[in-house]
């Protein structure tokens, strides 16, 4: 889950995503942990998550089609992550026009 990788909420602003990315990129930069391939992999994962979430089109696509391991979410995380879908499925959040 890219949101968990960057340690941000699912409705995080671009600014929050940038700040978290910078903090994590500094912490996990391979130059600080010479020769540790696990750190390099973590750094690449952080970069991938950032590149998707900071781009509005890629983020929208990810939110629609991301692969979710639902059983790994707490109830609070699940409700926060899928609130738009839950509201839409229950008929809320959709505006109907009558003709």
TrEMBL record:
Residues 1-66 form the J domain. Pfam families: DnaJ. Gene3D superfamilies: DnaJ domain. CDD domains: DnaJ (cd06257). InterPro entries: DnaJ_domain, J_dom_sf. One of its GO terms (cellular component) is nucleus. This is J domain-containing protein. It comes from Gossypium davidsonii (Davidson's cotton).
């Amino acid at each position: 889950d890219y949101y968990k990788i960057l340690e941000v909420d699912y409705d995080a602003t671009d600014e929050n995503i940038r700040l978290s990315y910078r903090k994590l990129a500094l912490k996990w930069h391979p130059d600080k942990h010479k020769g540790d391939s696990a750190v390099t992999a973590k750094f690449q994962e952080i970069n991938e998550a950032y590149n998707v979430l900071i781009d509005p089109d890629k983020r929208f696509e990810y939110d629609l089609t991301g692969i979710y391991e639902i059983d790994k979410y707490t109830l609070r995380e699940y409700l926060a992550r899928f609130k738009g879908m839950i509201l839409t499925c229950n008929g809320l959040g959709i505006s109907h026009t009558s003709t």
